[in-house]
Amino acid sequence: MYLITLDSETDFDGWRKAARALALHQVAPADVTWGVQGQMQDRMPLGLSEAPSLPPIETETTFSVPANFIELARIAILHRDNERFALLYRVLWRLKADHDLLETMADPDVAQAAAMAGSVQRDAQRMRDIVRFREIGREQKAHYAAWFEPEHHIVAFTAPFFARRFADMPWSILTPDICAHWDGHAISFTPGISRTETPAPGRLEETWRRHFQPDRMPTPEAPRTFPRNLQEASILGPLLADAERWTGGRISPRPEVPMKRKTAANDLETLREEAAHCRACHLYKDATQTVFGEGPTSANIMLVGEQPGDKEDLAGHPFVGPAGQMLNRALEEAGVDRKKVYVTNAVKHFKFVPRGKIRLHQKPATPEIRACRQWYEREVSAIQPDLIVAMGATAAQSVFGKITPIGKNRGRLIDLPDGRKALVTVHPSYLLRLPDPKAKMLEYQRFVEDMKIAAGLQKKAARAA
What we know:
Oligomer: single chain
Radius of gyration: 28 Å
Largest sheet: 5 strands, mixed
Number of domains: 3
Mean pLDDT: 82
CATH architecture of the largest domain: 3-Layer(aba) Sandwich
């Protein structure tokens, strides 16, 4: 009996090296016990106190396995099942005699390995979908932290995704297994946080400061690297697709959440929940989250912007970045109470192109505006506003259902087919982009004048009430 002790739960390189040596020495799977450093006492076979050493390989004898098995094993080894090491070695052992074994998805070992890989993929996708960072500190000292409880050992595997997505901000993802950190240059890992210290809602900052203040930061472990696009590997895809057919679709690596298209009532909470799972266009793949509208259901004014920006994408709330501050200032000068206004965007996901550490805003295309228009229409149905203010060309296209020039329609109330009024103006971000100070001041005053039209309607409604 051979006892193989791996360095960690995700030690694929150690498993691969040991599995190759065992197979070359014709050591059958039944004669091998696998475990992880520090966790072997409970799994050590009775009467086995130490593992015999394999003799050195004296020849150049080797063997090959299909490339998709290596990718399958690299992902499946991240599963939390203690038997995964033995299962993968058993498949490897059988591949020596049957090179086409992986094509037999009815085989129990192959199906189980593929199911493990699919489960890992789903957990990694879940992490990408639901991790939300909270800002700790301000300005130059700001750090972003999030809490996540994975089903499998996928934190190091998924961390490069967050490093690419949020390259311009320092962040930490805290989990019970390990904690991942990004400083703008490299990913590092520290020990996990005990489940007994799981941060309650609103206590994440306290947990972060207790464990990770600069003077208490433990020495990071050496960063581990993984193939950047392994979760979408072309070789592994067909194998998982075959496994899905054999198991009734239970192990798809990239599951889609069906989007509900009808609700019993167009209440905002129901709409917000449905929109969070929208897959009507491709923008959800790169955006952090859906940024839905906010405001009172009794609002008689709806402000429609174009799309979330970088800050909104991270925070999950509309108009909280620089454009939002410009909007707040203009509303206040115009006499509009923002607390009584519903604010949303024509497109609910952030569209951008990466430029180094910066994510540059990219204008939504017509198919993306059309795909998202259902949410705007259902928000209108839920709020029943008297006036809809379209800020920017994208918003105007969504409100009117066609391309609508701002210059020709700005500054006047326009009748909509459903009897409501619409007002067209520029987007606040346009004011921020103007390089000439004088032009910026004049355009800002025009924007305030547009908002005064909305203020008049708001005051009129208040008097009527």
